[in-house]
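S., here's the first fold you wanted:
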Amino acid sequence: MTESLFTTEGLIVIFYLLAIFGIGVLGARKTKTFRDYFSTSGSLGLIILIGTVLATQWGGVTLLGIVGFGYQHLWFGAWYSLGAAIRFLFWALLMAVVLRKVNPFSISEWFGMRFDNKNAMVMTILNLIVSLGLLGGQFLAFGAVVSVFFDVPVQTAVIVGAVMVTVYTILGGMYGVAYTDVVQIVITTAAAVGMVLYLWLTQGSFAVLRTQAVYPENYFNAMNVTPLGDLSMGWLFFVTLIFLWLADLFLNHNMQRMVSAENLKVAYWAPIFGGMGYVLIAYISPAIGAYSRVVLGTGLENPDQAFPLLAQELLPAYMAGLVAAALLAVVMSSGDSYLLGPSTLAANDLYRAFNPGASEERVLAVSRIITLAYAGITLYSALFFDTIIGLILTYLTIGWAVIPALGASVAWRKATSNAAFWSMSVGGAVNALLMLNFSYGWVPSINAMFPEMPNYYVGWIGFALALIIMVVGSLIEGEEGIPRNVRQPVATDGGEEVEDLEDRADAALRQVQY
């Protein structure tokens, strides 16, 4: 049952939103230049960085989407979460060390250094496109939470959430985002763990749940997945999810956190702890989904709303208000990062590229204007989707085609600039066209080739093309196609030749003007 905003639950939420707004204002006092706005000028310690890394990924998917998966099948949610843990290991082991040591200003600048400027521009464009889906998913999640707890229409709630996230992101920049993220991850973790303990005490343990008749056959069976046939929950589905998790590694909010770290050790350990956090989520969120079947029944129309409906059904007003605040916290903590990353990237790589003499203050002002415009475009896009995960996966399918070039940039010295450019361009374009065709049916015969298949499976096609172009194109071009500052060994201060990619990239940073 929805309530007025001016109840106990509503007043708690209003107080929370005002507090977050206040933290954004405090962040604004530290934001003097565009570099402060973009990356805190590399001053975040381990605790703050762990908080913002966790909070960025614990978005609407974590306590709404994964709980909804758990409502349908316990291990549906668990496997989804474990895919995220693998993604964090790739971040820490493959990217964090190299990119933090080189310390480029953005992910586009890294591609400009490692390959060339046309690759940097493709990276900027893809960031702007794919981030629309992730940010829009958080706007939808905000609307879902508010509409469950309070007597507010969903679209109105989505708009209010977009305005809140946009205002404090514009004010505080990366300082405001990082500090609010830490507050929000503490609130979120406490609420999620507390909810599971409360359910265990009031509804019984999993041993008790297994005796209930509300669960379908094999609901608790981790291995109840088919090799290929069940495209909604088979092994191919879970492998696909891992690649979709990896598909957001190229987004600039990840780079912002690496370059915001005060040193290399902090940049490495923050994503490691992020992966550990998702191992915890692999238990908590599916468990909440399982309890929801007992309390709410089996006919829930929108499983994404299971957690807020559960809190409203079981908890006293003040506790339900705290859960509402926590759910909004997890949504806003991702939304601010998905907004700041691409908008600052556009300011640096588009505005600054054409206005190289612009002052830091001027670029800062333009960046805030771009942030506002990008939020408006994303809000318009989000209103056309009904589900959080559906919106996110649609856009990540496009980003899936970037994985070969991103991996090659940090791990394969023989990767060439032209191969990277065409790999991302062709793979991304193919996936985008296939996804649009699924939505609008321009060529029905193509859609007929994938009967009853979730649309994001077409991402394998663009990924395969991108991988082939990356590998074959680089091998055909050979040594001459490799950028000179990567192809040739560089001299260290001791005058010795080195083959280490980190040192080559470090030398490239000093050579490339971008």
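And the second, which I think is the more interesting of the pair:
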Amino acid sequence: MRTDTIPLVPQAIGQRVNQLEQILDLIESQTTMVLSTVDPDGRPHSTPLFFVSDKSMNLFWFSSPRCAHSKHCAQRPIISASIFHPTRDWRKIRGVQMQGLASEVQDAGLQEEMRDFHTSRFRLGPIPKLALRKSVLYCLSPTWIRFIDNTRRFGYKFELTFEPAPLKGQTNGCGALQIPAQPAQLDIDSRFDP
């Protein structure tokens, strides 16, 4: 396997912007993610959840603090998620894998905004809407993203790394991504290049 490292210089910035747009397009086109956490004994746990995102690719979801995945996030805030376009054809596989920091969102205004957005986006009736009022808003702030797209060619992928910045009122994660301009490196796995 050959991995090339490309310094992030002006000509690579256009490529980075294009890659961020590809990721955002896929994330915004989907409604469900698979959230993966680890329990205190080191056992993996995966949960499908509705989510919404922002332009910084933070993923937001509501859950009861009593759910296993919520407890895991509190104990081990480094988590992962997958978002993908459902298909039965391997040539149409497109998806995003993420790792990052989980946190509870403390900002009351953002909580209310996300509650309203969830209610309208997912057409929640009165019972699920009431459940949201009793739930906690969580956020995954990505530190690493892998994008795959077999519609381009088999094995097409790229990876990006980020430094998360806090949201207003947050002490960790779930803010605007801090994308270093220099001397960041962009790793391209070219093992499937002709």
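Why I say that: The CA atoms of residues 73 and 102 lie 6 Å apart. The mean pLDDT is 80.

Talk tomorrow,
H.
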